[in-house]
Amino acid sequence: MNSSISTLMKKKGSSWWKTVLASRKQKQPGIGIDLGTTYSCVAVWQHGRVEIITNNLGNRTTPSWVAFTQTNRFIGEAAKNQASMNSTNTIFDVKRLIGRKFSDETVQDDMKHWPFKVIADPNDIIDANNPLIVVTYKDEEKLFTPEQISSMILAKMKEIAETYLGKEVKDAVVTVPAYFNDAQRLATKDAGVIAGLNVVRIINEPTAAAIAYGLDNELTDGYNNKVAKNILVFDLGGGTFDVSLVAVQKDLFEVKAVNGDTHLGGGDFDTRLVGYLVAEIERKHKKKLGDNPRALGRLRAACERAKRNLSSTTETSIEIDCLFDGNDFCSTITRARFEKLNLDLFEKCLEPVDKCLKDAQMRKADVHDIVLVGGSTRIPKVQELLQNYFEGKELCTRINPDEAVAYGAASHAAILAGVGDHKDTVLVDVTPLSLGLEVNEDAVMNIFIPRNTTIPTKISKTGYTSKDNQEAVQLSVYEGERLIAKDNNFLGKFLLYNLPPRPKGECKFDVCFNIDADGILTVSANLIGTNNKDEITITDHCGRLTKDEIDRMVKEGEIYKAQDEEFKRAIEAKTTLENYIEDVTMMVRRRRHMMSEDEKRLIEDAIKRTMGWIDWNYLCGDVSLFELKKAELRSVCDYVLGKKSRKTKVTELNNVD
Ligand code: ADP
Ligand code: MG
């Protein structure tokens, strides 16, 4: 027993320590969250298996949408359903923004299709250039970081799990696309912190899907020997596309290579369909639709539905009442048309498959199974192209494409908590991009960790000064595959200074790149060969939220949550008041013949007054006001219809009058 534990035991007594040990043994595994671009899913390991948790509407996935209105904040279906009436304040696709710069080409491109507004943070220091989402909430302009919006979705998933489990949930394994870079992973982790979660591990979505596959497949032969399988996880979702080659064995999942496209998915297919129909409308009606966000939002929702239908039928119709200027819209779309509009995008899905096989040094025939993940893999043409690419090989559709990722994440959360049948499972992930250094602006990217290196990993190299009496060395960290450092994604820089005066090449320093199990990078530099040792570590990117900012957002998140709950209670109080009005109205109707004109007028006036008040105040969000109005109406009703005898009441009424 170490000294700190024995000191504690002396202070608190051994029974305290036993309790601590016992509570550790019963640890409830964390939840697994698939934080998707368009839909999110939450699962938990319980009763010896993974359970996908349904939300309050009974759905197993929840739209990753957040909306703000004059009075309230909505998350999930409620946000998506009101989108067309409130498109500028309804936020979706935030995963496309997280961890990216405002100037990022894909952000600039995406912004053209979003009805909501995104700006560059005006308070940012020069390099940061972070995007902010602008909304009007409770009649005030509010700015939110992508981390904050993502935290709202994560908090919703946490709440769904808590409602189901009947207790507070803290720990979670959250998944990200394999192609997410360091900044995107860190930002996702920060979003978890803002949501009040302890993100125990970030894992790649395809790895999670491979775990789900592994749990569902026999990975031993008839003699109980382990069999290894190479599986290709083809994950085509709403906004991202990931391909991974995973070597799966019983209790061992080793990602051999990853590839993908951060900007390819169902949303792009919807955009093509919207574009086609907008052109059709503008041609027919000689009217510009591009600057009508409400119409575009409604058209987009209809296009998504049509696209889904076309996965199971060959023709579908789109009908929207009063789409613009009182004009209804109606059109028929065939599967062939939809495929033609998107064929180049579907074909584009095969390039990362090809690259992934090359990186893993495998042939098509080495792949044992092709696992389909993500809603867009339901598109028949996508399946057909993929099957043709693999020379007619059957695709594995056994696992649910919408749930596989959360399933794997929950299973991994159980493994990390030491629970379940697979607690000896080892997960081996790889870095999606090469990581390297530019020393003293010499322009060339000096790669430390090549892409597809297994993580966690730690690689050190020695550098030398390039000038006589050099006082400082500037180290800039990049990720990417380009030869010239500046063509890659800049992660951060730092100076190693106070170097002793020496001729060039004589002053040596070690630089160490360390990637932890979440895929998060720390770079440190260490002066050697002198007594004067120096060490600098960077874990933060320029642009990453600071601890203070995260703390502030955590507090804001709690305030928003409390406001949401207050509003929910106010709506319940309003419904209670309306039900009461209905009851009283019925009662007056029933007892009409037993009441005097004065009595009737007294109650009817009170009802009218209360209803008038509701008309003006139904969005006030104040529970106590609804309760007060109910008490006022009740006092009039009790007065007239109370338990006293009719005679007494009428006498009293006459006295009042
Ligand atoms: P993400 O993980 O990116 O949030 P999902 O895996 O949940 O995405 O997939 C969502 C995408 O799948 C959406 O674009 C949705 O329209 C699309 N999708 C869902 N079901 C179908 C279907 N039956 N046919 C075609 N696309 C579908
Ligand atoms: Mg997904």
Provide structural commentary.
By secondary structure, this protein is an alpha+beta fold. The protein folds into 4 domains: 31-264 and 349-428, ATPase, nucleotide binding domain (Nucleotidyltransferase, domain 5, 2-Layer Sandwich); 266-347, ATPase, substrate binding domain, subdomain 4 (Actin, Chain A, domain 4, Alpha-Beta Complex), CATH 3.90.640; 431-545, Sandwich (Substrate Binding Domain Of DNAk, Chain A, domain 1), CATH 2.60.34.10; 548-656, Substrate Binding Domain Of Dnak, Chain:A, Domain 2. The chain contains 17 helices and 28 strands. Strands 1, 2, 3, 4, 11 and 12 form a 6-stranded mixed beta sheet that branches. A 6-stranded mixed beta sheet has the order 18-13-14-15-19-22. Strand 14 (241-249) and strand 15 (252-261) form a beta hairpin. Helix 8 packs across helix 9, helix 8 (266-285) crosses helix 10 and helix 14 (547-591) runs parallel beside helix 16 (623-641). The longest helix is centred in the C-terminal third of the chain and has 45 residues, at 547-591. The radius of gyration is 30 Å and the shape is globular. The termini are far apart. It binds adenosine-5'-diphosphate and magnesium ion. Residues 36-39, 237-240, 265-267, 304, 307-308, 311, 374-376, 378-379, 402 line the site of adenosine-5'-diphosphate.
